[in-house]
């Protein structure tokens, strides 16, 4: 399929990893409606492709994404924004079954920061900057920023970032648990792909059910989450990969995953 605002490819060293690059560099990858349409199409296609096990989303060195496209919103009224219903697409990204890793360099601002937080993990370059500067243009975060930042950073800091628009450096974001690791900009993509490749080498049904269970922790009370976890755990005992994984351990050989 031909895309105008993204580039879709497989990681050369491990084709089980699908990659999407946001590719609107002249606008710092501002997340326009057509770009978001392309992005969800590409991610859902990878999600449905049996030989893809993990996905990486990245921008370029200067910007992961500098937010929603301000030019598209500047003249809109509330009804128009509501009818656009653009957050449906964001919900579809949150509903992807396979792990999605954001590789972030440069700006991850507004919707760009929210998109990175929607991913399952973030690998940051040492030049990455995260922020919710919507307050400076007369609005506030709308794609999860007030909720996901608060859950990760706690109320005080999330409040500061949302009310002042201050950016977090990559190191600060790492210290606070927003990102998994910070590496020099020259190798941030390589690092994200290595992480994706490790996950791609694991039994895919266990990966899928484990991802679901971890995400459940963010939206349920503990008892419900524990019950959900237990059911997924039991379910894995119906997979061939569970038998293979445990037998391979006993026979002291590497497992051969079948994804069944
Ligand atoms: N939207 C549209 N265009 C943008 C955006 C954006 N968010 N960010 C940058 N650009 C454009 C600039 O207009 C400029 O275009 P041109 O060359 O045609 O004038 C080009 O990208 C380069 O940008 P700058 O010249 O401004 O580059 P600087 O290095 O001087 O500054 C900054 C970089 C600091 C990142 C600056 O561009 C900036 O402040 N950008 C806006 C950041 C922002 O406010 N983001 C939040 C947007 S609102 C939002 O995300 C709401 C999310 C919730 C809804 C999600 C639904 C999809």
Quick gist of this model?
This protein has 260 residues and is an alpha/beta fold.
The shape, in one word, is globular
Major sheet description = 6 strands, mixed
Approximate strand percentage: 15-25%
This entry's quaternary arrangement is single chain
Distance between the termini: 29 Å
Average predicted confidence as pLDDT: 97
Bound molecules: octanoyl-coenzyme A
What class would the helix/strand composition place it in? alpha/beta
* Radius of gyration using CA atoms only: 19 Å
Structure overview:
This protein has 260 residues and is an alpha/beta fold. The protein is built from twelve helices and ten strands. The strands form two sheets. It has a six-stranded mixed sheet with strand order 1-2-3-5-7-10, with helices on both faces. A four-stranded mixed sheet has the order 4-6-8-9. α1 (33-48) links the parallel β2 and β3. α1 packs parallel to α4, α6 crosses α7 and α10 (204-216) runs antiparallel to α11 (222-236). The mean pLDDT is 97. The site of octanoyl-coenzyme A (CO8) has 21 residues, from α2 and β6.
Q: Which keywords apply here?
A:
260 residues, alpha/beta, 6-stranded mixed sheet, 4-stranded mixed sheet, 12 helices, 46% helix, globular, binds octanoyl-coenzyme A
């Amino acid at each position: 399929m031909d895309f105008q605002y993204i580039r879709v490819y497989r990681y050369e060293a491990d084709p089980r990893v699908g990659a999407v690059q946001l590719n609107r560099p002249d606008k710092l990858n501002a997340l326009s409606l057509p770009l978001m349409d392309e992005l969800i199409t590409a991610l859902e296609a990878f999600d449905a492709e049996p030989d893809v096990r993990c996905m990486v989303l990245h921008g370029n060195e200067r910007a992961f994404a500098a937010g929603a496209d301000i030019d598209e919103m500047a003249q809109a009224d509330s009804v128009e924004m509501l009818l656009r219903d653009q957050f449906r697409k964001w919900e579809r990204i949150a509903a992807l079954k396979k792990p999605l890793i954001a590789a972030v360099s440069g700006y991850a601002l507004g919707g760009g920061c929210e998109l990175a937080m929607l991913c399952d993990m973030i690998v940051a370059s040492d030049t990455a900057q995260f922020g919710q500067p919507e307050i400076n243009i007369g609005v506030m975060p709308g794609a999860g920023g007030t909720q996901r930042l608060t859950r990760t950073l706690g109320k005080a800091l999330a409040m500061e970032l949302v009310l002042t628009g201050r950016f977090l450096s990559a190191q600060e974001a790492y210290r606070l648990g927003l990102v998994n690791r910070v590496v020099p900009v020259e190798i941030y993509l390589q690092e994200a792909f290595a992480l994706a490749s490790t996950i791609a080498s694991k039994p895919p049904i266990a990966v899928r059910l484990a991802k679901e269970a971890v995400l459940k922790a963010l939206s349920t009370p503990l008892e419900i989450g524990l019950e959900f976890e237990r059911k997924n755990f039991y379910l894995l005992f119906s997979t061939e990969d569970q038998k293979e994984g445990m037998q391979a351990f006993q026979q002291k050989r590497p497992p051969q995953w079948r994804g069944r």
